[in-house]
Specification:
The chain is α+β, with helices and mostly antiparallel strands. It has one domain: Intergrase catalytic core (hpI Integrase, Chain A, Orthogonal Bundle), CATH 1.10.443. The protein is built from six helices and four strands. The strands form two sheets. The chain has a two-stranded antiparallel sheet with strand order 1-2. Strand 1 and strand 2 form a beta hairpin.
Length: about 130
C-alpha cells in the first residue's frame, strides 16, 4: 500500500507560499505536528485556542484534550483567526471549512492527499513549555 508523502522541502515551500490560503497552510502545519485528527481540527472554534494551546474533544468526546501549539504554527494560526472572537478557526468563504474542502485544497495546492501531511514523517514536535 502506497502512502502519499511530501518531503520536508516541499512542506516548507507550501507553508511559506502566501498564494495558498492561510487557513490551509495552518491546517497542514497542525496536521503534521499536533496529535489531533482532521475532524478535530475542523471542529475547533476560535474560543478553543489560546496563544499557546488548542483544546478539542478527545477520543471519548466527554473531555477535552489539550495540545501545545507548535511555534511553527502559532503565527499562521493567529493570522487565520484574525480579529474574530468566535466561530470556526478554519473557514472558507466565511463558513466553517468542510472536510471535503480541506481534502480538495490539499490536492489542488500540494498535489497530495490531506493525509500526506501526517504521513510524511515530520513527527509531532511539541512546543517547549515556557
Amino acid at each position: 500500500m502506497h502512502l502519499d508523502t511530501i518531503t520536508p522541502q516541499q512542506f516548507d515551500e507550501l507553508i511559506s507560499d502566501s498564494a495558498i490560503p492561510v487557513a490551509q497552510r495552518t491546517l497542514w502545519v497542525l496536521l503534521a505536528e499536533v496529535k489531533f485528527n482532521l475532524t478535530a481540527f475542523l471542529s475547533l472554534d476560535v474560543r478553543d485556542a489560546t496563544d499557546t494551546t488548542l483544546s478539542a474533544a478527545g477520543a471519548s468526546k466527554s473531555r477535552l484534550a489539550e495540545m501545545l501549539i507548535p511555534e511553527s504554527a502559532s503565527v499562521l494560526l493567529r493570522e487565520a483567526i484574525g480579529n474574530r472572537t468566535e466561530g470556526a478557526i478554519f473557514t472558507e468563504g466565511g463558513k466553517a471549512m468542510s472536510r471535503q474542502t480541506a481534502v480538495r485544497a490539499a490536492r489542488q495546492y500540494a498535489g497530495c492527499s490531506i493525509h500526506a501531511f501526517r504521513n510524511s514523517g515530520f513527527g509531532w514536535k511539541p512546543r517547549s513549555a515556557d
